Amino acid sequence: MQSLEILHEKETSLIGRDNGREFLVKLEKELGSLEELEKANPTLEFKFPREIITMNKSFFLGAFAKRAIALGKQAFLEKYDFSSSEYINLKISSHIDYALKNASMDSIVRNG
Q1: CA atoms of 87 and 66, how far apart (whole Å)
Q2: Could you tell me which residues come within 8 angstroms of residue 29 by beta carbon, excluding any fewer than 6 positions away?
Q3: Which of 59, 83, 94, 110 is deepest in the core (most CB within 10 A)?
Q4: Which helix (H) or strand (E) holds 31?
């Protein structure tokens, strides 16, 4: 299992799509792309400091939407382990649902 601790301890909220994308860029510079990490590791663990009290949908979508859409909810949750509070884990689950729903709607609109 690859364990990733790259969040700054002074942060308390993970918000904004641009911040999610910045998180992803930082991760890619330090460790490689999420796809590369997925191939090299059975599980990716993201450890959130206790000080992180929330992650909004925009941040999640900026950082993880592409992989959630590519893998689907079940496979994404099997591959990605978010070590965080129960509250944040519940939010992540709903953020995955949102990403998948909107990806489906986008596909229908483009192909319809």
Answers
A1: 23
A2: none
A3: 59
A4: helix 17-31
